[in-house]
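Bumping with the actual sequence this time:
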Amino acid sequence: MTTLVPTLSLRIFPRTAPWLRDLILITVGALFVAALAQVKIPLPFTPVPITGQTFAVLLVGAALGSARGASSLILYTAMGAVGLPFFAGGGSGLTVLTGPTLGYLVGFIVAAYVIGLLAERGLERSMRTSIVPFLVGTIIIYVLGAGWLAIGLNLGLQKALVAGVYPFLIGDAIKIILSAVALPAAWNLAK
């Protein structure tokens, strides 16, 4: 099976070279994550803000598939690392990659890949199963993000959960539900 965006792009641009189509899709995915990263709500009790990034990661992984989705998040991370204002709230540079959000950035790449794998198996096409890839992806982001806070920044597990997971549960549940509704609806429109 294939995922939504490659399927649509092949229909719309059937004569475009596959490598060029992939490059465009990966770049647009990275720019989409960068755009939603600008939606930032700082919380006074944690170094990790609420952002639109996680929602974008869920959608990019499911819509592009494993290889393109992960490549898109790698490109996003690289562009932010070299100084483009792509990280949360316009942040950029290597200091972000060594700060409290490093685990989340790595988690985005892994989550996009795994969500993409599950989407390639058709799980994002049905309302019954579409929540699975997005829930799994969110758990990956939490494990790597809070894991970095706990181990890399020496916060310990309890403080890492308080700073990096608990404040985001409700918002991420909403993002999971929106993703689980959006992808099957998009597939239905694409038929």
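The tokens above came from a reply further down the thread. The domain at 4-190 is CATH 1.10.1760.20 (Arp2/3 complex 21 kDa subunit ARPC3).
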